[in-house]
Design a protein that fits this description.
With about 180 residues, the protein is α/β, with parallel strands linked by helices. The chain has seven helices and six strands. Helix 1 links the parallel strand 1 and strand 2. It is globular, with a radius of gyration of 16 Å.
């Protein structure tokens, strides 16, 4: 049941450090006997399209490699895809981001060899998913989130922070001080 996974890896996570970890993670997956197909993101938002493609191909097990942003986008992709009922899609994350807040809140080990062990268990948990409707005249956008949602200063910061991601955990603080 838990041996065919569609892997969505964000090599840009953790200021690009995840790129070096992906081959090691793949070796660990093979060693554990996990069958998978992997896709690497090229830009933010690719995860949503990749989930739609995975479910169109019949995959109902999605493994993300990345941080909180990767997790958010994969879950959004699960919610937006129309191929498999959302409650029939299993999502697991190998944390490889800067903060890994969602993984920490779920008790997912930050060491990839330990987090891979989760794939072979039958323990599952449901995740609440928040939804925000953004209305701009006649245009309505629907956004899904699993960790947090922010408006005002937080939204302003997230628009600016990409150019400071190379600073890792200090990027938010630096961005706040510079703006």
């Amino acid at each position: 049941m838990y041996d065919n996974w569609y892997v969505i890896a964000n090599s840009f996570s953790d200021s690009g450090k995840t790129k070096k970890s992906i081959p090691k993670i793949e070796k660990a997956l093979i060693k554990k006997g996990v069958n998978y197909k992997i896709s690497l993101t090229e830009k933010a938002g690719d995860e949503i399209k990749m989930v739609a493609n995975a479910t169109r191909l019949g995959y109902n097990k999605i493994l993300g490699i990345g941080g909180d942003g990767t997790a958010q986008k994969i879950v959004a992709g699960i919610m937006m895809q129309k191929n498999i009922p959302n409650n029939k899609v299993l999502f697991v994350l190998i944390p490889s981001g800067t903060g890994n807040d969602w993984a920490k809140s779920k008790g997912i080990p930050l060491d990839y060899s330990e987090s891979i062990k989760i794939l072979k268990t039958s323990k599952e948990a449901f995740q609440d998913v928040g939804v925000a409707k953004i209305i701009n005249g006649q245009n309505i956008k629907t956004k899904y989130f699993i960790t947090y949602s922010g408006v005002g200063f937080d939204s302003f910061m997230l628009k600016k922070i990409d150019k400071y991601k190379w600073l890792g955990k200090l990027s938010y603080l630096f961005c706040a001080l510079m703006n």
